Amino acid sequence: MIAPSTASPATAAPRLPSSHRPGATAGESERFIELSHRLSNFNILGAAVIALLTAASVWGQWRAVGIVVGLHAFAMVFNAWVNKVYLRKRGRSAEIARSAVNLTILVIVNRAAGWSLPTWLWLPFMALAFDHLDARVAIWSLAGICLVQDTATLLDGVPWIYPLTFTLLAVFVSEISRRRFSAIRDMLGRSDEQRAELEEAYVWLQDGHDKLTAETKARLQMESELRQAQKLESVGRLASGVAHEINTPVQFVSDSIHFLQEASTDLMGVVEKMRLVHCSVLAGVPSMEAAVAAREAEELADLPYLLENVPKAFERCRDGLARVAEIVRAMKEFAHPDAKEMAPVDLNRAIQSTLTIARNEYKYVAELVTDFGELPAVMAHAGDFNQAVLNIIVNAAHAVSDVVSGTNQLGRITVRTRREGAWAVVSIADTGSGIPEGIRDRIFDPFFTTKEVGRGTGQGLAIARSVLVEKHKGELTMTTETGKGTTFFIRLPISGSSGNAA
Asked: How far apart (Å, rounded) are the C-alpha atoms in residues 294 and 272?
């Protein structure tokens, strides 16, 4: 692939010293580097496409293909070296040297390809990639490329319409490139002015922020302590259930391993007898006694039974270990500390982990139904979201337990997710007795609870609402019907900002 003959936005241009960039300030140069890197992806893709088209145009002419591919590879390595090493030290002289090398390679490749149509695309492509912050290099490089290539093609008898058409196109896209760089330069200048104004406003706002910080510090500390205490309460409440969930598959694995240990001993005895039969046959001696002994060993070991059940034992071990791994992974994801800033979160996976952790809370009283819709990653604090969902799930389990207690029936907890425009919506419904009308407006109040002592502190829903509404700028609402159950709705802005989601 032949790189642009002058600095492309991805490589050379951002590294030129400021002395080679007329009108470019140090700050402007720094930001121009960032913008240029973004534009470079298009140049890299364009160069790759043209190189492939050139090779395809001479496919079957293997000598020409070899020349095209070999020179493209050399040009790629050479330009990468110039960008990383030579250009940093030499600046404009490195650009001129690279232009000469690329021009030579360009003419050789295009002539080897027989001046096919794809080869002419290099003229406008390189013109579009010029760094017009160094106008002299861009203008003279373009003029040199067009003059040399057009002369070479005319001497080879190529119709004049090709060099004329693509030279005009190169001039046109060069002007587009110049306007692009000019617009970027103007944009950076305007942004400098706006930044100065913003810095002044920032100083004024900083004073107000310091005052607000002092006033809210005590409140935030209290909320943090309350949230941490509620987390510790949840961990303590769930600890025995999680231990039981892990113990069951571990016991399953242990029983299977004991069986496999005994089976392997029996199978070793059979294998040993078989080896004696094998040795007798190979030695040419009577093997009847050895064969009878092997048959007796098979019957003693009950070989058909082992052949049928050993694979099943391995399968049970694998299933048990997979269950343990699932629980441990869920615990790890649930307990993972939140970062200070929001991060993209897979809500479906977060909810599934929370349901795994809380399984012992609901599995004896309710059937769990999940209906996970297709959701994008949502900007959120994963730990706080998990805690809010856990609080609602535990409340739902308690509500169902109050209804089915003393019966052989199971209630139902239904968890659904879906997307509504710029919002991610989670609904958690239970078939409990519903919330009495007289206390519906108090269920989110701190320390309000209708449960007996030891079953709840009244902080769960209050903290859930604080996390979802205040910290995530979302919504937590509910609908309830006495005797039929309650449904809680969590709505979070996908972008992490309710203003953007509105």
From this structure: 8
> How far is the C-alpha of 127 from the C-alpha of 175, rounded, in Å?
9
Instruction: Please provide the DSSP assignment of 177-198 as one string.
Output: HHHHHHHHHHHHHHHHHHHHHH
Per-residue pLDDT of 19-68, as tens digits, reads 344 444 445 555 555 555 566 556 667 777 777 887 888 888 888 888 88
Q: Helices (DSSP H) in 302-346: which residue ranges?
A: 303-335
Three-state SS for 45?
helix
Q: Looking at residue 502, what is its pLDDT?
A: 45
Q: Is the per-residue pLDDT at 248 higher than 70? A: no
Measured CA to CA, the distance from residue 417 to residue 430 in angstroms comes to: 15
* Domain parsing of the chain, residue ranges: 12-158, 343-501
- Rounded Cα distance, 261 and 361, in Å: 36
d(CA 428, CA 370): 9
Q: Are 501 and 422 in contact (CB under 8 A)?
A: yes
- Burial group, residue 137, by CB count within 10 angstroms (0-12, 13-18, 19+): buried
Give the pair of three-digit tokens for residue 175. 């002007």
Residue 239: pLDDT band by 50, 70, 90 thresholds? low
Q: Is 414 helix (H, G, I), strand (E, B) or coil?
A: strand
Q: Render pLDDT for 186-219 as a digit per residue (tens, 0 to 9).
A: 777 777 788 888 888 888 888 888 888 877 777 6
pLDDT-derived band at 15, boundaries 50, 70, 90:
very low
Kindly give, in sequence order, each residue whose CB lies less than 8 Å from that of residue 402, ignoring residues fewer than 6 positions away: 432, 433
d(CA 422, CA 381): 18
What is the distance between the alpha carbons of residues 126 and 231, in angstroms, rounded to a whole number?
Answer: 61
Do 78 and 6 meet the contact criterion of CB atoms below 8 Å apart? Answer: no
Amino acid at 112: A
Q: In angstroms, rounded to a whole number, what is the distance separating the alpha carbons of residues 183 and 221?
A: 49
| 436 Cβ contact list (under 8 Å, min separation 6) | 482
Measured distance CA(325)–CA(246) in Å, rounded: 9
Report the DSSP beta bridge partners of residue 366: 411
For residue 268, the surrounding DSSP H or E stretch is helix 161-283
User: 288 exposed, middle or buried (CB, 10 Å; 0-12, 13-18, 19+)?
Assistant: exposed
- Regarding beta strands 411-420 and 366-372, do their DSSP bridges make them parallel or antiparallel, or are they unpaired? parallel
Q: Where are the beta strands (DSSP E) in 78-183?
A: none
Nearest to 95 by CA among 140, 50, 64: 140
CA distance 352 to 343: 18
Residue 315 to residue 234: CA distance in whole angstroms = 34
Q: Kindly state the tokens that stand for 493.
A: 């802005």
Fold of 343-501: Heat Shock Protein 90 (3.30.565)
Q: Which residues pair with 418 in a beta bridge?
A: 425
